[in-house]
Structures are given as structure tokens and as C-alpha cells.
Amino acid sequence: MKDTPGFGDTTSRSIKDCEPSVAGAYRTLRDVELRDGPGTKFKVVTTLPAGIKINVVRAEGDWLRVESKKGGKPGYVEVRTVERWKDK
Fold first, then answer.
1. CATH code reported for the domain at 16-84
2. Domain residue spans in the chain?
3. For the chain, what is the HEC assignment?
4. Digits of tens for pLDDT over the chain (88 positions)?
């Protein structure tokens, strides 16, 4: 029996390929620590205030990589401290 791509063929796609992209605009739910790396063991770079829009470029476990569109230092925030940005 021949594998049809996407149906039993585990070599053609990974689970990550099926997940929606996490990249995009998010809003901080409270004051959030921006860290050097994806974890609490990494140094806090700065604290982002509640309610601001941030630019997420990728996920690493329970952490999101944030990069500034205005030249600020990149870093990581915990996924539970933000939500998708919703235009009003």
C-alpha cells in the first residue's frame, strides 16, 4: 500500500507544520519581563508595560521571541503573559 502525503506519511510533514503560526502582533496582559533567553534562568532585559503591542516572531516552548520594529533589544516573554492583538 502506497502512502498518500498527509495520510500516514510521517516523513512529509511534522506536527509543527500543522500548527497555526504564532508570529504576529500580541498585547501584554500585565507588566511583563523581557528576558535574554527562553526561560526564567535568563537575565531580565527590561519590563514591558501592560497593554502594549509587541511583535512575536516565533515560539520556543512556553516562550515567545519578541523583536522590536523600532530597533529595541529582542528578547523572550512567557506565552501566558500575552494575548493575540485584536484590532478594534
1. 2.30.30.40
2. 16-84
3. CCCEECEEECCCCCHHHHCCCCCEEEEECCCEEEECCCCCCCCEEEEECCCCEEEEEEEECCEEEECCCCCCCCEEEEHHHEEECCCC
4. 444 444 444 433 333 444 568 999 999 999 999 999 999 999 999 999 999 999 999 999 999 999 988 888 899 999 999 999 988 6
